[in-house]
What we know:
The protein is an alpha/beta fold and 205 residues long. It contains five helices and six strands.
Amino acid sequence: MKFFKIILVFLIIAAFAISLWNKIHLQKYKRMYEIQKKEKVRIEGVSKKIEEAVIKAQMASMKHIGKKLIWENIEKIYPKEDSKQGNYINPKLVLIFSELGCNVCQDNETAFAVDIANVFGKNFVLAVINASNKRYARNYIRMNQINFPVYFCKDDLFLNGNNIKNTPMIFVINEEDRVIASTFPIPGHPIYSKPIHEFCFYYFK
């Protein structure tokens, strides 16, 4: 009888342990499911935001295609020679930056523009900096070791005159001074700028 009692106690303890183990792991699986469910919702939300940003960028780009940029209400600050307003070069790649824009985006596009200038020449690139004072623009030139012309605009007249609502903005210009491609970077997703970068290297050859 004593042996059977021991077996019975052992079976009861084992059943309790198995039940407790199942309960713990069931709760664990439930937590994992909830985490995965929340992560799926988060990813879907991020994907939707990215999709909306891409569409917005495409819409912003389309309205500039075929048009000429109006080179008014800007002042050349780099290089110092030939700094008289109105003495413009004929750029193929134009960057429009603002001190209120995405700094990471501007850094990425600046690095790309420096590469273009190194490969095809400094006169291929031009940057317009919209800021409250020239100090911001000069810091931009110094920190990024700019090797292409930079212009400064204090107010929004240049942006408004060219119907530019978003910055940073990138324009590719053809031989007739007309925009053939444009876009603005999507913050946190530099991969979406890659197509226009590749297009520039192909088109400028």
